[in-house]
C-alpha cells in the first residue's frame, strides 16, 4: 500500500443532461411512454409513405369492419380507409399538439418572465391580464375564435395556444421571483448585465425545468383540445385529424363503433404516453427528488 | 281577462289531470264521439323557436305550426291536392281567371269575439302582399272587393293558378284588422308574439322562446264540436337525439319535419310509433347540389353534366341517407302533380364524366384537372354529402376544397352573394311551382340573396315556359309546360337535384288524424284527436 497514493474516489463530473437522462431511465413507466411516443412519431412520419392509400379516397364499401377485405382498421361511412386516415391524421394531430404547445410556451414565458423580472406595476398589470384569461371558459373562448376567424390549421393552433398559456405564465413568474434574488443573478447584475440578458440568459435557463415539464403536458392537452374542437365540427374539413375522424363518424357510433373507437384509442394512448414522459421529466429535472 | 292567473291554474291542472277534467267537461256535449274529445297533445315544434307567430309576415315551418293553429286560411287541402272549404265555405273562380270570389263562414269570430269579415280578408292580403317574403304569391292580386261582410273578391291582373295553393296552409292567414291595422309595422308588431288575437281553431296561452308554445281550444270556433283537443303543448327541443328520446318514452306524442337518417332508423322499429313521409308534398323540400354557372369551369354545361355523372346518387340515397329519402330529379318535388320523372337522370358513370371533362378542354394532369370549392352549409346534415362529393369528384380529377361555415348567416352570405362554386342546399317548393320553383330558375331572379337564382342560370326558353305556366289556368296545359321546363333544366344542370328531403312525421299510436295532408304540421289541427 505504501507506493500507492491515497486514492480518493472522485466521481466524474457529468453534464446535467446526462444526469437527467440517468434519472429518467430509471423511471420505467416514463420509458414505456417514451417508447410509445417514438413509435407514434415514426408512424406519423413514415406511415403514409409505407401505406400510401389516400385517406380521402373511397376505397371500399362503407362500414367494412376491421380486419376484413384487407382493411386492417376497416372503412368509415364513406368507405374510406381508417388506417390511412389514422396515419395521416397522426401528422396533423401531432403538429397541432406541438405547435399549440409552442404558442402556449412562447406567450407564457414572455408574460411570466416580464412579470417576474420587473415586478411592480408591470407585474400587477400582466398578472391581472393573465387572470383575465384564466377565468375565461377555455373551450368556449377557442370556439369563438375559430368560428370568427375560420377553421384553418393555423387558426386552430392559435386558438388552442391563446387560451392555455396562463399556467406557463404563472409557473415562469414564480420561478423568476425565486431565482432573481439568488447570488449569481446578483453577481451578474452587479457586473452590469442588461435586463434582457439577465432575463433570458441567466434566469430563464435556470427556471426551465418546471416549464419543460409543463410544456410536455401541454402537448397532450392541446391534442385533446383539438379533438374536442373537431368533434364539435370546428375543424378544417380539408385535413384529417384524429378528432375530426371521431367528429365525422360520431353519427354512426351505434352501428359502427370502431370508426370512433379506433381514433379515440389513438388519442388516449398518445396523451397517456405524453403524460408518462412528462411525469418522468418532472422526476428527472426536479432537483429535490435527485439522489445526491 | 287575466291570462297570467288563468295560465297558472290551467298549468297545474292540465299536467296532472287534463284527460280526466276534459272527459268530464265534454262527455255530455258530444255523445257519439266521446273518445275524440279533449286531452292535451304534446308535440315538438318543428324548426326551433319561431321568429314570429304571425305567418302573414314570416315564412318557415317554425312559424307554420303555431301560425296555422292561431290563424285560419280561406282553404285547406286534402292529401290529393284538392282544395277543401275552410274559412271560405265556398268559392268561385271566374272564367277568365281574373276574379276569385270567397264566401266566408258566417259565424266565424276572432279570439276576442269580434266577427271575421271580408274587410279582414282584404287587410290580410294587403299585409301579406307587402310583408311576406314570397312576393310571387299575391303579386298579381290588384285589389280585394268587399261587396258584403261575408264576401271577398280578389281581382287579378292576370290568371294566377298558384293562388289556390297560396290561400291554404300557412300562406294566407286571416289576421284581425282591428289589431294589426293600428299603424304599427306588421313585421315587428308586438301582438305577433304576445296576446295574439287569432282566427284559427286554437288560441295562444303562452309563448316562451326556447321553451314552448302552449295553445288552447278556442270555444268560439265556428265549427260545432271542433277542435277536438283541449290543448296543444308544442315544446321546442332543438337537439334531434333529445327529440328521439322524448318520442321513445312518450314525453311527446308527435314530431314533424324529422329528417336525420340516424334518428329515423333508430325510431323505425319502436313499438307504438309510426313514421311516415306523407304530408310533405305541399312544403316540397328537396336537396340539391347547386352549381354556380357564372364561375370558372362550371360555366360549361359539359362540366356540370360531368359532375352529375361522377356523383353516385344511389350511394347517397342508400349509404348516406340510409334509404330514408326518395330520389328527386328536378326542382319540383316528386309528390307534386307537376313532377316529371322522365328526364336525364345521370346514372353514375365515371368514364362518361371523364370523357365530358376531356371534351370540355380540361385534360387530366397528374390526376388533376381543376379545383373547385364547395361550401359546407352552416345548418346540420350536409357534412356526409359534402365530403362524399369531395371524394367522388376526386375520381374524375376535380380537386374539391371544402369551405366550412360556422353558422347559417355566414353560409347564406357566401351563397347568396354568388361567391361559391358548389354547395348543397335544401329548398322548399311551398306548394305551387310559381312560389317555390320559379325563384331558382328565372333569370330575373339572379343574385337576389340566398334561395334565389344564386346559380346565375339564365335560359330564355325556361323563362318563357315558367311565365306561361304561371298564368295558365288549364292544369293539363300547365303540366305540359312544366314537363318541358324540367327536361331543359335537367339537361343543363344548374343544380343537380339529388333527393326529396326525407321529412318524416313521427307519431304515437294514440294520435288520431295526424296531419298527413300536403302541408304537414303547417295545417290546422282542429281534427286531430287523442285515442284512449
Automatic annotation (TrEMBL), chain A:
Any Pfam family hit: BPD_transp_1
A Gene Ontology term for the protein's cellular component: plasma membrane
Transmembrane segments: 29-51, 94-120, 132-149, 211-235, 256-277
Annotated SUPFAM superfamilies: MetI-like
Keyword ATP-binding: no
Record has Transmembrane helix as a keyword: yes
Family per similarity comment: Belongs to the binding-protein-dependent transport system permease family.
Protein name per UniProt: ABC transporter permease
Provenance organism: Paracoccus alkanivorans
Amino acid at each position: 500500500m505504501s507506493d500507492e497514493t491515497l486514492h480518493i474516489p472522485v466521481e466524474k463530473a457529468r453534464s446535467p443532461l446526462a444526469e437527467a437522462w440517468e434519472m429518467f431511465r430509471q423511471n420505467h413507466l416514463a420509458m414505456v411512454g417514451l417508447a410509445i411516443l417514438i413509435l407514434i412519431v415514426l408512424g406519423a412520419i413514415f406511415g403514409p409513405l409505407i401505406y400510401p392509400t389516400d385517406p380521402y379516397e373511397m376505397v371500399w364499401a362503407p362500414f367494412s369492419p376491421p380486419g376484413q377485405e384487407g382493411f386492417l382498421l376497416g372503412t368509415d361511412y364513406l368507405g374510406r380507409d381508417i388506417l390511412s386516415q389514422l396515419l395521416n391524421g397522426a401528422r396533423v394531430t401531432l403538429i397541432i399538439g406541438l405547435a399549440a404547445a409552442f404558442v402556449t410556451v412562447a406567450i407564457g414565458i414572455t408574460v411570466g418572465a416580464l412579470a417576474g423580472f420587473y415586478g411592480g406595476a408591470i407585474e400587477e398589470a400582466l398578472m391581472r391580464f393573465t387572470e383575465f384569461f384564466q377565468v375565461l371558459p377555455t373551450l368556449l373562448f377557442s370556439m369563438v375564435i375559430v368560428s370568427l376567424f375560420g377553421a384553418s390549421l393555423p387558426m386552430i393552433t392559435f386558438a388552442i395556444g391563446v387560451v392555455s398559456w396562463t399556467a406557463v405564465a404563472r409557473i415562469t413568474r414564480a420561478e423568476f421571483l425565486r431565482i432573481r434574488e439568488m447570488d449569481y443573478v446578483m453577481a451578474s447584475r452587479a457586473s452590469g448585465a442588461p435586463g434582457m440578458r439577465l432575463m433570458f440568459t441567466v434566469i430563464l435557463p435556470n427556471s426551465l425545468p418546471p416549464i419543460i415539464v409543463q410544456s410536455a403536458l401541454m402537448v397532450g392537452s392541446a391534442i385533446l383540445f383539438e379533438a374536442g374542437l373537431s368533434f364539435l365540427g370546428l375543424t378544417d374539413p380539408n385535413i384529417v385529424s384524429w378528432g375530426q375522424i371521431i367528429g365525422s363518424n360520431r353519427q354512426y357510433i351505434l352501428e359502427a363503433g370502431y370508426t370512433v373507437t379506433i381514433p379515440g384509442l389513438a388519442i388516449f394512448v398518445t396523451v397517456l404516453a405524453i403524460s408518462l414522459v412528462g411525469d418522468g421529466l418532472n422526476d428527472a429535472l426536479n432537483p429535490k427528488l435527485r439522489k445526491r | 281577462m287575466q291570462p297570467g292567473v288563468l295560465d297558472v291554474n290551467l298549468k297545474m291542472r292540465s299536467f296532472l289531470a287534463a284527460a280526466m277534467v276534459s272527459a268530464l267537461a265534454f262527455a255530455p256535449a258530444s255523445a257519439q264521439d266521446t273518445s275524440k274529445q279533449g286531452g292535451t297533445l304534446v308535440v315538438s315544434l318543428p324548426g326551433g323557436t319561431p321568429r314570429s307567430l304571425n305567418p302573414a309576415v314570416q315564412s318557415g315551418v317554425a312559424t307554420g305550426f303555431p301560425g296555422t293553429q292561431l290563424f285560419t286560411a280561406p282553404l285547406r287541402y286534402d292529401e290529393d291536392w284538392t282544395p277543401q272549404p275552410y274559412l271560405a265555405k265556398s268559392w268561385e273562380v271566374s272564367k277568365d281567371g281574373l276574379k276569385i270570389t270567397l264566401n266566408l263562414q258566417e259565424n266565424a269570430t276572432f279570439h276576442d269575439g269580434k266577427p271575421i269579415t271580408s274587410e279582414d280578408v282584404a287587410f290580410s292580403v294587403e299585409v301579406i302582399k307587402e310583408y311576406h317574403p314570397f312576393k310571387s304569391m299575391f303579386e298579381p292580386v290588384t285589389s280585394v272587393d268587399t261587396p258584403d261582410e261575408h264576401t271577398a273578391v280578389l281581382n287579378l291582373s292576370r290568371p294566377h293558378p298558384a293562388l289556390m295553393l297560396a290561400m291554404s296552409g300557412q300562406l294566407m292567414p286571416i289576421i284581425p284588422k282591428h289589431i294589426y291595422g293600428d299603424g304599427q309595422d306588421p313585421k315587428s308588431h308586438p301582438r305577433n308574439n304576445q296576446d295574439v288575437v287569432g282566427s284559427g281553431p286554437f288560441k295562444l296561452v303562452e309563448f316562451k322562446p326556447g321553451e314552448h308554445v302552449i295553445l288552447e281550444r278556442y270555444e268560439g270556433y265556428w265549427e260545432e264540436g271542433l277542435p277536438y283537443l283541449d290543448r296543444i303543448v308544442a315544446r321546442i327541443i332543438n337537439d334531434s337525439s333529445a327529440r328521439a328520446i322524448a318520442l321513445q318514452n312518450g314525453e311527446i306524442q308527435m314530431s314533424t319535419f324529422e329528417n336525420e337518417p340516424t334518428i329515423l332508423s333508430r325510431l323505425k322499429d319502436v313499438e307504438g310509433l309510426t313514421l311516415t313521409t306523407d304530408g310533405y308534398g305541399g312544403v316540397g323540400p328537396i336537396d340539391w347540389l347547386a352549381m354556380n354557372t357564372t364561375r370558372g369551369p362550371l360555366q360549361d354545361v359539359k362540366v356540370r353534366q360531368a359532375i352529375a355523372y361522377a356523383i353516385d346518387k344511389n350511394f347517397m340515397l342508400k349509404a348516406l341517407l340510409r334509404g330514408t329519402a326518395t330520389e328527386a330529379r328536378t326542382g319540383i318535388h316528386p309528390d307534386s302533380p307537376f313532377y316529371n320523372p322522365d328526364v336525364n337522370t345521370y346514372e353514375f358513370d365515371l368514364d362518361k364524366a371523364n370523357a365530358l371533362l376531356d371534351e370540355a378542354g380540361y385534360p387530366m394532369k397528374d390526376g388533376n384537372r381543376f379545383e373547385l370549392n364547395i361550401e359546407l352549409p352552416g345548418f346540420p346534415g350536409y357534412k356526409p354529402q359534402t365530403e362524399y362529393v369531395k371524394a367522388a369528384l376526386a375520381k374524375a380529377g376535380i380537386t374539391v376544397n371544402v369551405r366550412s361555415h360556422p353558422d347559417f348567416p355566414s353560409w347564406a352570405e357566401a351563397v347568396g352573394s354568388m361567391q361559391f362554386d358548389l354547395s348543397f342546399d335544401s329548398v322548399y317548393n311551398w306548394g305551387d311551382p310559381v312560389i317555390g320553383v320559379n325563384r331558382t330558375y328565372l333569370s330575373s331572379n339572379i343574385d337576389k340573396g340566398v334561395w334565389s337564382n344564386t346559380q346565375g342560370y339564365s335560359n330564355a326558353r325556361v323563362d318563357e315556359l315558367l311565365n306561361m305556366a304561371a298564368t295558365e289556368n288549364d292544369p293539363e296545359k300547365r303540366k305540359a309546360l312544366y314537363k318541358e321546363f324540367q327536361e331543359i333544366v335537367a339537361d343543363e344542370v344548374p343544380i343537380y337535384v339529388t333527393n326529396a328531403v326525407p321529412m318524416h312525421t313521427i307519431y304515437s299510436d294514440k294520435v288520431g288524424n295526424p296531419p298527413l295532408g300536403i302541408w304537414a304540421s303547417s295545417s290546422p289541427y282542429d281534427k286531430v284527436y287523442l285515442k284512449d
